[in-house]
Specification:
heterodimer, A: mainly alpha, MetI-like fold, 78% helix, globular, B: alpha+beta, 6-stranded mixed beta sheet, 8 helices, 20 strands, 34% strand, elongated
Chain lengths: 277, 352
């Protein structure tokens, strides 16, 4: 029995409707709001206001710098960690325990975890106390209200994403390829850079893009750890929606952010592809 | 005394409680083609991986050209391997795959590519340098793997069931090509296979393994004609295995009648098994024949196998297979009473 046209229509239609309702529709609402004025007329005033104001460019610069630093730190910590979990940890229960430790924090709210870091990174927090006790610093370092603090918080929250993405990619590299490389006379470190690493690049790229996007669009962690001293772009958007109630201007800020992020990711992807070829 | 190219002594390896290799001794000479043959789980792949360095044996030593390499990591061993799944680098072109070895040995990029081109030429893949492994057929990938393994001209090449993924026709052709290439290059091959025909076709010497032990080492024809153990007799080719014993008067008693012991076979004590190949068993529809040891038999079934016919006959409690190459007499049908016979000289005795 072949399914009726009605069944096929439902099978295709329901996911499409779901996508339209929950992904496309809100985006369209925001996009439309960004190019209209309060009276419903079309306008580009919101965009000229953003693009001609140096302040917005400053905030964008800070946002993308924090995003880039977070991404770099995540890659530098996450790649070796993922590689260690997949290739070095031979005992399955230990590997499972490590992965659970990595994932469990994702079950708690960002807010709780960021508050945790506020406690740890405070003037008299555990981090400063420890560094002082070790004699590494003389007086407390200002983490809260600095970009460093925000980066620490974001790295902590986003690390699992890159570890999972890279871990999957490394696990997919057939160990016999590394053996073939060794068989042909390659030192293990050479094997890693000529075989394992290039083959795990797609996973690393996916993880990097994910972390960067989440880092530049993060609101809770930067808001809590900035101590009101640092402004990232998502805070400007939040202000427009929650305090100023200017949905048109807020929408234009959102779209600006989205487009710039996509451009950056596309450029990075292009560079990555060119290097890979 | 000249040293062998590869000398393995008292090699043992256990995985958990499982014995994978036990007290394996083996010598391989320059330019020799050795096949490690056995059913799956017999230890042949474990032995190969110990030689390559991917496994460290628990006991024993491995010497290559007089140097002890037992504890040497794979990248320092003077040999190369063709892997079962070929293990071609998917992100590199065919040329880069083959040039990988020379590059690691310090050749310049240009030099390495030149040598890769030569190696590809040897395996008949000259036009494929710029392709990627995924664009090649299984047979072509196998050739690339071979080219990559011989490009550095190792003295010793290990091959881990390299033809098992190819279809039968192609496999037969590649077997011959591989043998010719091996003779041309003078590289010693240690070739793992579970296919006895492959081993007998290609190898100078066949090493039959079972349960982590070497059962017998010898030329293919030797192993077929004079198997050392019951396992080898059973594993290589088809064999009638007849339990037998030596009577006090020195004659041999089998289930196929009693006969005088073959003077070439030294009398052995204990239980014996006589090995008789189906082609050594004559079917005698018209009764006993002079010069043969014979026994009356009943035809059980007649199996046509294209080029020849296998006739299974029952003699007392045992079923004996006889291979008939010529035309089959008309009266040889299931249930027919016939005689079987064999030349006493053909009987090969092994301790059971």
């Amino acid at each position: 029995m072949t399914p009726s046209a009605r069944t096929i229509g439902m099978l295709i239609g329901i996911p499409v409707l779901f996508f339209l309702a929950f992904f496309l529709f809100p985006m369209v609402v925001v996009a439309v709001a960004s190019i209209t004025d309060p009276n419903g007329g079309l306008t580009v005033a919101n965009y000229t206001r953003i693009l001609l104001d140096q302040y917005h460019w400053d905030v964008l610069w800070v946002t993308f710098r924090i995003g880039a630093l977070t991404t770099i730190a995540c890659v530098l910590i996450g790649y070796p960690l993922a590689w260690y979990l997949v290739r070095i940890v031979a005992w399955a229960p230990w590997r499972r325990a490590c992965i659970i430790l990595l994932i469990v924090p994702l079950f708690t709210s960002n807010i709780v975890r960021s508050f945790g870091w506020m406690v740890l990174l405070g003037r008299n927090g555990l981090v400063n106390d420890t560094l002082q006790a070790l004699g590494l610093i003389e007086r407390p370092v200002r983490f809260l209200g600095s970009e460093l603090g925000i980066v620490i918080g974001l790295v902590y929250i986003l690390l699992p994403f890159i570890v999972l993405a890279v871990g999957n990619a490394v696990a997919d590299v057939d160990p016999s390829l590394e053996q073939a490389s060794a068989d042909l006379g390659a030192h293990p470190s050479t094997s890693f850079w000529t075989v394992t690493f290039p083959l795990s690049l797609p996973g690393l790229m996916a993880g990097t893009v994910m972390v960067f996007m989440l880092a530049v669009s993060a609101y809770v962690t930067p808001a809590l750890l900035s101590g009101g001293r640092i402004t990232v772009f998502s805070m400007l958007i939040f202000q427009q929606y929650s305090t100023v109630f200017d949905f048109h201007y807020g929408g234009a800020l959102s779209i600006t952010m989205l487009v710039l992020t996509l451009i950056l990711v596309a450029v990075a992807g292009r560079i990555g592809a060119a290097k890979g070829a | 005394m000249t040293t062998s190219l590869l000398e393995i002594a008292k090699l043992s390896k256990r995985f958990g409680g499982q014995t994978a290799l036990s007290d394996v001794d083996l010598k391989v000479e320059q330019g020799e083609f050795i096949a490690l043959l056995g059913p799956s789980g017999c230890g042949k792949t474990t032995l190969l991986r110990c030689i390559a360095g991917f496994l460290t044996p628990d006991n024993g030593s491995i010497q290559i050209a007089g140097d002890d390499v037992t504890r040497l990591p794979p990248y320092l061993r003077p040999l190369n391997t063709v892997f079962q799944n070929y293990a071609l680098f998917p992100h590199m072109s065919v040329a880069d795959n083959v040039a990988y070895g020379p590059r690691r040995k310090g050749a310049t990029k240009k030099e390495a590519l030149l040598r890769a081109a030569e190696a590809l030429d040897l395996v008949g893949l000259s036009g494929f340098a710029d392709r990627f492994p995924r664009q090649l057929s299984g047979g072509q990938q196998q050739r690339v793997a071979l080219a990559r393994a011989i490009v550095n001209r190792p003295k010793l090449l290990l091959l881990d069931e390299p033809l098992s993924a190819l279809d039968l026709k192609l496999r037969k052709r590649v077997q011959i090509e591989l043998k010719h290439l091996q003779e041309k290059l003078g590289i010693a091959f240690v070739f793992v296979t579970h296919d006895q025909e492959e081993a007998l076709t290609m190898a100078d010497r066949v090493v039959v393994m079972s349960g982590g032990r070497i059962e017998q080492v010898g030329r293919g024809e030797e192993i077929y004609r004079a198997p050392a153990t019951r396992f080898v007799a059973d594993f290589i080719g088809d064999a009638n295995l007849l339990p037998c014993s030596i009577l006090p008067d020195g004659s041999l008693m089998t289930d196929v009648g009693s006969l005088r012991i073959n003077p070439k076979i030294p009398p052995k004590s204990g239980a014996l098994v006589a090995v008789l190949r189906p082609e050594q068993v004559s079917l005698l529809p018209d009764g006993p024949m002079e010069g043969l040891s014979t026994a009356p038999a009943v035809v059980e079934d007649v199996i046509h196998v294209g080029s020849h016919v296998i006739v299974n006959v029952r003699v007392g409690d045992v079923v004996i297979a006889s291979r008939v190459s010529g035309p089959l007499p008309a009266r040889v049908v299931a249930g027919a009473r016939v005689h079987v016979g064999f030349r006493p000289d053909d009987l090969h005795l092994i301790a059971d």
